[in-house]
Each structure stands twice: as structure tokens, then as C-alpha cells.
């Protein structure tokens, strides 16, 4: 009785299917990270909390809440910028903590400064999303100038940080009576 040999074709098909699954998992992880960074799956988008924020309320404290809209926007922008730059620039120096991460005043110095902060927030978010999406970015590799951090970790920290302060912005607008009616 002759033994049947396994065909090389079947073996290679199995091997390529494993490789394909790994590639699919990487693409899926990247897409999940992008979705998480953009927001909107479990809550509003960050920009939803900033759109139509009345200029005369941006520097107003609400009873029981520690920050103004300007402080939350600018803090989120600075922290996001810091995470992005740390992730891609070995010469980046982070601001002093905590004072370097918060604006000095409760209100934006001008409408132009508010808009500049909003645009910088959007630009830096786009930049980190592009970093995460790039197949050249190894999400798991330790950042050479870090202390064990990875791009994956930094993206997750950023998404978590932005979601936290997004919640604060929504609460603030509700407390100020300037959140859109549902």
C-alpha cells in the first residue's frame, strides 16, 4: 500500500493563509486605532464639543467644574502635540508637568488664538492618525528615545486622554446651558 504524500500546494496554501491573516489583523488593528482616535463610536467627536461653542462662554467656569472651555481645548492640544512629537522626534522636549500643559489664562487671548488652537488640534490629530495608518510604522517597536513606550501605547494614551477631556467639555457646555438640545 502506497502512502499518500501531502501535496506541496496544500502546504503553501496554509502558509499563505496564515500570513494573510496576520496582515489582516495588522490592518484591522490600525483601523481600530484610527477609529478610536477620531472618536464618535461611543460618544460625540471632539470637534462636536467645540463647534458653535459661544465665544462669550469659552472662558467661563461652571459651578463645580474645574476648567473652562479654553483651558480644556488648549490642554488637549498641548498634550496631543506632545504625544505626537515624542512619538516621532527624538529631539523633542516635553513641557514641564503640569504647568506646561495648561494655558495661563481661563480665556483665549483672542478669537484668532481659539481658532489657531482648534486648527492645531485637528492638524496634530491628523498627523498621529497618519503615523498609525502607515505600514512603515511598527506599532509594537519601542520608541528608541523613550523608556519602553511604543506607538501603539502612545496612540491609546492619546485616545484615552482626548476622550476624558471631551467628556469634560460636554459636561461644561451642559452646565453652562450651551450644549445643543437633543
Give the SSE layout.
Blueprint: H1 8-38, H2 46-50, H3 69-88, H4 111-133, H5 151-176
Describe this structure in words.
The protein is mainly α and 182 residues long. It has one domain (14-176): Four Helix Bundle (Hemerythrin (Met), subunit A) (Up-down Bundle). It has helices at 8-38, 46-50, 69-88, 111-133, 151-176. Helix 3 packs antiparallel against helix 5 (151-176). The longest helix is centred in the first third of the chain and has 31 residues, at 8-38.
Which descriptors would you attach to this protein?
182 residues; mainly alpha; 5 helices; 0% strand
| Alpha-beta classification | mainly alpha
How far is it from the N-terminal to the C-terminal residue, by CA? 77 Å
Characterize the main sheet: none
The coarse silhouette is globular
Poorly predicted runs are 1-21
The secondary-structure element order is: HHHHH
What is the CATH architecture term? Up-down Bundle
- How many β-strand runs? 0
Q: Note the beta-strand portion.
A: under 5%
Q: What's the Cα radius of gyration?
A: 22 Å
Q: What is the CATH topology assignment?
A: Four Helix Bundle (Hemerythrin (Met), subunit A)
Number of domains: 1
Name of the CATH first level:
Mainly Alpha
Question: Count of DSSP helices?
Answer: 5
Give the overall pLDDT as a whole number. Answer: 90
Overall helicity: 55-70%
Superfamily at the CATH H level? dinb family like domain
Amino acid at each position: 500500500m502506497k502512502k499518500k504524500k501531502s501535496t506541496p500546494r496544500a502546504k503553501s496554501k496554509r502558509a499563505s493563509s496564515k500570513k494573510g491573516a496576520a496582515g489582516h489583523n495588522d490592518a484591522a488593528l490600525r483601523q481600530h486605532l484610527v477609529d478610536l482616535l477620531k472618536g464618535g463610536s461611543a460618544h460625540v467627536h471632539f470637534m462636536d464639543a467645540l463647534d458653535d461653542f459661544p465665544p462669550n462662554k469659552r472662558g467661563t467656569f461652571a459651578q463645580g467644574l474645574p476648567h473652562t472651555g479654553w483651558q480644556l481645548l488648549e490642554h488637549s492640544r498641548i498634550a496631543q502635540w506632545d504625544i505626537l512629537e515624542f512619538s516621532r522626534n527624538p529631539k523633542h522636549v516635553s513641557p514641564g508637568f503640569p504647568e506646561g500643559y495648561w494655558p495661563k489664562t481661563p480665556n483665549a487671548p483672542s478669537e484668532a488664538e481659539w481658532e489657531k488652537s482648534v486648527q492645531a488640534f485637528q492638524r496634530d490629530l491628523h498627523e498621529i492618525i497618519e503615523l498609525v495608518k502607515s505600514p512603515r510604522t511598527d506599532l509594537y517597536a519601542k520608541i528608541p528615545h523613550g523608556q519602553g513606550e511604543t506607538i501603539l501605547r502612545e496612540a491609546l494614551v492619546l485616545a484615552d486622554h482626548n476622550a476624558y477631556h471631551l467628556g469634560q467639555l460636554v459636561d461644561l457646555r451642559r452646565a453652562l446651558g450651551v450644549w445643543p438640545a437633543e
